[in-house]
TrEMBL record:
Family: Belongs to the TRAPP small subunits family. BET3 subfamily.
Cross-referenced CDD domains: TRAPPC3_bet3 (cd14942)
Entry keyword Secreted: no
Entry keyword annotation includes Ligase: no
UniProt keyword terms in alphabetical order: Endoplasmic reticulum, ER-Golgi transport, Golgi apparatus, Transport
Gene Ontology terms: biological process: Golgi vesicle transport
GO annotations of cellular component type: endoplasmic reticulum; Golgi apparatus; TRAPP complex
Name by which UniProt lists this protein: Trafficking protein particle complex subunit
SUPFAM superfamilies in alphabetical order: Ligand-binding domain in the NO signalling and Golgi transport
Length: 147
């Protein structure tokens, strides 16, 4: 279910965060996008072969994604510091979401995500990718009645 994105915190400039993301992207060594997408696709294919249950496949992808995310955050913080790129101080989860969406995703995938749907207690949010570099070789089944 899609909900329209919320507005970022007033003290964070979308423009400066996006500019920081572009600066880090320019300084990062680039990997071939097709190779990256095929590698990820191979991982998903192996999980589908190993597990019969879609819920278990999603649990494994969630576990793997969490591990990758933790490593990406470490890399993000160290590269930003080394590169001298100014990262806004995050006082709240909404600030963190905006930095990850606008700078982190740009740094690693070359795309900007949008943070939205913040939980009422501020402990969770959704990230929307309007361009997904991992989907270049993906065929989705036709939408049908089985969801």
């Amino acid at each position: 279910r899609y909900s329209p994105p919320t507005v970022p915190p007033p003290h964070m400039s979308k423009t400066s965060a996006t500019a920081s993301g572009h600066a880090l992207w320019a300084k990062m060594p680039k990997a071939n996008a097709e190779l990256f997408a095929l590698t990820y696709g191979s991982l998903v294919t192996e999980l589908v072969r190993d597990y019969d249950d879609a819920d278990e496949i999603n649990r494994q992808l969630d576990r793997i994604g969490h591990s990758i995310g933790v490593r990406c955050v470490d890399e993000f913080l160290s590269k930003a510091e080394i590169s001298g790129v100014s990262i806004p101080t995050c006082q709240r989860m909404t600030d963190t979401a905006e930095v990850v969406a606008r700078i982190g995703f740009r740094m690693f995938l070359g795309v900007t995500a949008e943070a939205a749907n913040f939980s009422p207690d501020g402990s969770g949010f959704s990230l929307f990718l309007y361009e997904n570099p991992l989907a270049i070789f993906v065929e989705l089944p036709p939408s049908g009645g089985d969801g």
